[in-house]
Amino acid sequence: MQPLAHARRTAAWLLAAPSRVLVAAISALVLVLAGAVLFAWSGVYNVAASTGHFRVVDHFLRFGMENSVRARAPSTSLPPGIDESLVRLGAGHFHAGCAYCHGSPGTPISPVAASMLPPPPILTERVGRWSDGELFWIVKHGLKYAGMPGFPSLHRDDEIWAVIAFLRRLPSLDRPGYRALALGEVEPEPQRGMDVATGQSEPDAIGACARCHGARQGPPSRLVPILHGQPAAMLENALRAYAKGERDSGVMQTAAIGLPDSTVRHLAAYYASLPRPPASIETSDQAAAARGEAIARDGVPSHGVPSCLGCHGQSAAPGYPHLAGQPARYLEGQLAVWRKGLNDRSATGRIMAPIARRLSEAQSRDLAAYFASLAAPREAPR
Amino acid sequence: MTVRGRRLAAILILAALPGWAPQSALSPAGDEAERIALLSWILFVGATAILLIVIAALALAIRGAEPVRRVIGSEGAIRWGGIVFPSVVLTLLLGYGLWLMRETIAAQTTPALRIAVTGEQWWWRVHYQRDGAAPVREANEIRIPVGREIDFALRSNDVIHSFWVPSLGGKLDMIPGRTNTLRLKAERPGIYRGQCAEYCGGPHALMALEIVAVPEAEFQAWLAAADARNEPAEPKVAAGEKLFLSTGCGACHAVRGTQAAGMVGPDLSRVGGRRFLAAATLRNTAENLAGFMTDPQVAKPGALMPPFAIFTSEEMDALTAYLGSLR
User: Fold this and answer.
1) Distance (Å) of CA B65 to CA A243, B55, B59, B70
2) Label partner for A23 (CA 20 to 30 A): which of A3, A246, A278, B248?
């Protein structure tokens, strides 16, 4: 009992004065820190991804991650019902940004990605465990130390929701179903003389613009602009602005970054030369389109809004996009992005930004309805 | 001398040279401004005299001989000097002021020329009313004939502004939803600078204007030439016009005789003939024009025009040549 009595006496002596307690606490802390530094310095800890974690560490990390996500995730969820445009846009980005690590229906996770620690989960089995808001938070912000990146643009929640809409569809997809959504009209198998835009020389056509924007046909999603017949100069500017991060879009930044200058020029010339696809002209809301027409023609001078057709009509300069026949949902979404104060860093973006901010949400909706109701000229401009 | 000292000296010298300054209530060039200047001088001189009397009385009350101090300290001195004197002086001044300003307040006769000036953030929309024809739209520089009474119909499209050309008259507020009428006359030809005199946000200090008073015949010729359209002769000017129309300038700015019919920004039909740009902020040179179009925020922080940094230098040359040709 000698050591126990000794310890008891020491404890009584330490606790007798607050200053002694403080000194003891600080000494203990310094010892722990020194031990930690010694541990890290010695190289005893094995950082190899190949060895994995102890099971208890793995459980602890997962426990912490799940609670952190639940505590931070928004309570919002996807609107009820199936929104095919949202799913298609999400599928397009999933194929370019997510499929390499997470695999896709019919294509297993690459062994390189599967050797990460933690290995990226097969989403088909996992997405059901999370709520919409939790998935949204994970896709937007990523997970520290897990290799899961955040979304390239933190300002485009609308694009992230498209990915979530697709993730909800994912468990029910087989290989043909997935490829129909993610690749659209692009069929990468045959090796014919392929051009850059359709990207058909690459195994899975990751960078193929036509997956989302179409080539022979129009874009399958109403959230994606029709590029056919747009001025080449505008298309080049847009691609460069996305690549430089002057225009906010996680989807397009991923697609446009690193494209060589010659590719940008070829692509722009290719889409500029395409005839407009036989688009379904949107004529859903005549009244809104009529209100939009008044704004597009005369502007709203009392609010400093000029006529839209001054820059977006068919006779405008080639640096500006033609809006006739674009999908209403795409136009409305872009105007919402402008109104949020984004997209205002490229040369043409700086022109549009102050004007778009003067439009109300209702005016934007009317304008989108008007331009969507217009038939674009069928022949490709020279 | 430091820069600030030199600036201060320059301001003092300018203030002391009323006859030279283009924007000074002390260098009147019209009836209304003359009346205001006269009243101002009476006030300055009278106030100075009264101040001297008060100082003298104070000095005598402290240091004066015993009998003088007794008089100053008496109730009579307070009754006469403190009650009767100010009442009489102020009543006389008020009466005189009202009599002097009678013409400004009650202008019943209708003058031949009426110019509507509308305050905008941060420039002046100018319409010359014409009988039987559409009004002539101008901006920021107002031409008037010498020696004629002109009614300025003052309005505002956004916030309260105030129209003040000190050499020609007093200031009058421009109030949204109201039309205030100010009658002015320039007695001699010249350039009279004006300034928005009511804080109207951001670049309020850079919202100025010029009234250019010219002989009647010259004015009539200038007004009559408004509808004349001169087709661009030079290829560079023609290229500039094409750019102006295709890059959206015409959606905000109007140029008579072209498709450009925008009502958002200043009318540019005769911008080449104006002395200044951006509401009397920048000298009208090709360089300043190019700089302002590329980034208006440099010269006029807060201006509502978007920056057009999309032109090559050749394109900018053509554009400035075109705008300079609009006279």
Assistant:
1) 91, 16, 11, 9
2) A3
- Please report whether residue A335 resides in a domain: yes
Q: Which domain holds residue B249?
A: 229-325
CATH number at residue A369: 1.10.760.10
Domain interval for residue A316 = 286-373
Position with higher pLDDT, A202 vs B62:
B62
Q: How many CB atoms lie within 10 A of CB A200?
A: 19
Question: Which of A148, A183, A218 is where one domain is finished?
Answer: A183
Compute the half-sphere exposure of residue B306: CA atoms within 13 Å on the CB side of its CA: 28
Residue A323 has pLDDT above 70, yes or no: yes
Report d(CA A366, CA A326) in Å as an integer: 13
Domain total in chain A: 2
A316·B304 Cβ contact <8 A: no
pLDDT at A253: 92
Q: Which among A299, A352, A354 has CB closest to B304?
A: A354
CA distance, residue A246 to nearest chain B CA (Å): 14
Domains held by chain B: number: 3
- B19 assigned to some structural domain: no
Q: What is the pLDDT of residue A382?
A: 37
Q: Is residue A57 part of a domain?
A: no
pTM: 0.83
pLDDT confidence bin for A191, thresholds 50/70/90: low
Q: Are A123 and A108 in contact (CB under 8 A)?
A: no
Of A301, A305, A310, the CB nearest to B250: A310
Report yes or no: A212 and A219 within 8 Å, Cβ to Cβ.
yes
Judge whether A263 lies within some domain: no
User: Does the ipTM surpass 0.85?
Assistant: no
d(CA A328, CA A282) in angstroms, rounded, equals: 8
Query: Any idea what the CATH number is for the domain that residue B261 is in?
Result: 2.60.40.420
User: Which of A306, A315, A347 lies closest to B264 in CB terms?
Assistant: A306
- Give residue A166's pLDDT: 96
**Count of alpha carbons within 13 Å of B121, Cβ hemisphere only?**
18
